[in-house]
Amino acid sequence: MNAVMFDFSGTLFHIESAAEWLDELGLDLSPAEREDCVRRLTETGALPGGPPPLHPPEGWSQRDVTAERHRSVYTAQTRAALLPLFGPERADRLAAELYRRHMSPGAWRSPYPDAEPVLSELRRRGVPVAVVSNIGWDLRPVFVHGGLDRYVDAYVLSYELEAQKPDPRIFRAACELLGHPPEQVLMVGDDLAADGGATALGCAFHHVRSLPVAERPDGLLPVLDLVGSGPLPGDRMEGVPATGG
C-alpha cells in the first residue's frame, strides 16, 4: 500500500456520548427525566456519529449527501426524541442547539490514542493520507483542534462531493487526490458496508471497531504493517460487498 484513506467518526475520533451531549445544554432535569431523554435520543439515532436509530426514518440512508439534508434529518430525529418531554417550540430550539453542539470540536473526544502515532509515522514514511467521511459539515476544525491536521493531505467529504460511501465516486476522488491507483490505497474505517465499499475499486480495507476512546488504544496500529505491501486476499473483511454504488 502506498497511500491510506481514513474514515473520521469511530475511526480517528469518537463523538461524545448522548448523555454528555445532552448535559451541554445545562437543562434542569431530574435523574429520571435525564435518563429518559438520553434513552430517547439514543433510540432515535439523534446524535450524529452516535448509534444509528432503532427505526431509520425515510431519507436516512442518504442523509450525508448534502449539508441541508444532514441538518434536516438529524434535527428531525432530535425533535422527535424531545417532543414528548418539552413540547413543540422548546423541542425545536433544543434540536437546533444540539445540532450546533455536535459540529464543535469540543464535542469530539480526543483522537484515539494511536491516531497521532500512526499518522505521524505515515508522514515520516512519505505515505499520503486522506480523510474520507460521510458528513454534512466541515470537519477540518476538529482535526486542527485535535492536532492531526498536519498529517492529512486531503479531505473528501460527502456533502461537498454530493456522493457518500459506499459510492465508488467518493473513493475514486480520494485516490486521485492521493495520486495513487486504488490497488495501492488502503481504506481504514469502522463501517463494513460504507468504508468497506472501497474494495469495489480494488482498494484494500482494514476494519476497526467504533468504541469509546479509552476502550480502543491500538486499533489503528496494524495499518503500519499493511503499508508498503500489496493487497492481500484477506484484506476484504467478511460481510463487505464485492461491489459498491
Automatic annotation (TrEMBL):
InterPro entries membership: HAD-like_sf, HAD-SF_hydro_IA, HAD_sf
Keyword set, alphabetical order: Hydrolase
Enzyme Commission number(s): 3.1.3.-
Enzyme kind, highest EC tier: hydrolase
A Pfam family it matches: Hydrolase
MF annotations from Gene Ontology: hydrolase activity
Name used for this protein in its record: HAD family hydrolase
